[in-house]
Every structure is written in structure tokens, then in C-alpha cells.
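Q: Two folds, back to back.
A: First:
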Amino acid sequence: MTAQHATTGRPSAAAKPARLAADAVATMREGARLRLDYSAQSLWRVDRLIDDIRREGAPYAAVESVLRGLGAYAGEVIVRQTGGEWWSSGSEYWLRTPDGRLWDPVDEARRCFYGDGSLRLMCRDATGGVRG
């Protein structure tokens, strides 16, 4: 799980969530005209976007990949602010912050969709309130 990519120096588990996050940034920029800059403040906009999707009544199956990308984006915000690292088991991804805590931002995005989560608050908790 901790094998390094020769070109990036990041754990190999980081490749897929980092790509999902980058895809979400591009999709939001092009489709929703929403600029995501990997800052903790940008997660306010992501939480609001997920709220709007829920209020529109979209079925989960229709937005599952969008939520996965937005969760990966939130995870990348945390990784960049804390120096945490992505871990994987099969097709599941979570991250570990340097203090040893584990976080599941993809699941948190799903919980946001169901009205019981916040990527912004998860980031605040994971970073100890670090501003970025």
C-alpha cells in the first residue's frame, strides 16, 4: 500500500483519487462554472453544490460518479494541507492524516448527498482548522 510512484513521489494509492479530483475540478469548471482551487474554503461551494443536487431530487445512481469525484477532491484538499496520504483496499479509497487518523471523503460526499455530512467540516476536523 505504500509503494511510491517513481515519477510523482506519492503513494501509488493516490493515483486514482488524485485523478478523480482533477477530473472533478475540470468538470465543475466547464459544466457548472465553479472554480475549485484545492483550498479549504472551496469546500463551502462543494457542500452547497451537493445540497443543490439533493434538492433537485436527482437519484443517487445518477450522481454517484460526481459525488465520488467531489469526495476525492475534498480528500486532495486534506492531503495537500496536512501531508496525509491516500490508502486503498480494492476499489475503496481513504486517507490517513499524519496524526494517524483515517478519513473517508468519498463516503462523506455520499453522506452529504443524503443530508448527513459536510466535506467542509470533515476538512476542518482533519486539518485542525488549518486555513488554506
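A: Second:
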Amino acid sequence: MAVSLNHTIVAAQNKKKAALFLTEILGLPPPSLLGPFAGVTVGDTSLDYMETDDEIVSQHYAFLVSEIEFDQIFERIRERRLTYWADPYRQERDQINGWDDGRGLYFEDPNGHLLEIITRPYGSGGPAASRPHPLVARSLEPENQQADSGRRGKSGGGRLATAEQQGRQGE
């Protein structure tokens, strides 16, 4: 059996309001109530909203959507006059990014969770993309393998790895 994420619990001050917000923005079926949860099905995964009186720590949830779905979701974001950003640091307000030759944007839900819609998975455009994703994808190796690969001058790849290799050559 392949491993897949079945569900995750999302903290909310009002589970119904938060779950309805997500389903309405993404154009998904209405949430279902199951015990203390308001569940939103996204593909094979469920985001189960649960109310808390505690301070909510912002989490990040990214949704891969088609180009058509992106347009529809973006229209709903604009209709609600929600603030959106091209970047996760919330510095490029009212902009869409073009990373990996797709489109993406970030916006907040009623609890301050950072939601993201993207039309291409991170890194899918590769180095040939006109706008490669700014994050560098590197493999996380066990510590003993990292030490061995460092001695051999190998690295995980990407711009950071290239800079590291250039730095080693100058030592």
C-alpha cells in the first residue's frame, strides 16, 4: 500500500465558519460534521477543523489547482476583497507569482492560516523554467551520509549547491 496523507486537524476559533470559507473559496462540496470536526475533503485528504479557545498558531496549506480552477478561485478571492500576496513572506501584495512557469498566490483564512494556490508543483519547472521557483530543493540525507558526501565534494544540487561547490574550490 502506498503511503498517503489521510487527514490533518486544523485549529479554528469557529470550525463551521472556517470550513465553509475553505469550501466556498476553493469551490469544494460543503463540509461534513463528524464528532468535534468540520471536515473538508480535498482530493484524498480531509482537513478537519476543530475549535479551540487557545491562541491559534498559523499553519500553511497549499493546494494544487488547474489553470481554470486558479481563475475561478482568484475571482472569488477578489469578490471577497481578500488580501493576497505573490510570496509567503507577504511582501508582494496584490500580485501573483509565476514560479515554475505556472501561477500562485497566498491568502489568509479567518484564523490566520496561510493558504496557497498553485498551478505547478514546486520545482516542476526545473532550471529551464523562465521563472524557476526561488526555493532550492535539496535532499535531506542522514548525518553520516552528509559527512561522506561533503568529503567527496558532492551536494544536493540547485543554486545553493553550486555556490557551495564554488566556495569549496576557492578554499
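Q: And?
A: The radius of gyration is 20 Å.
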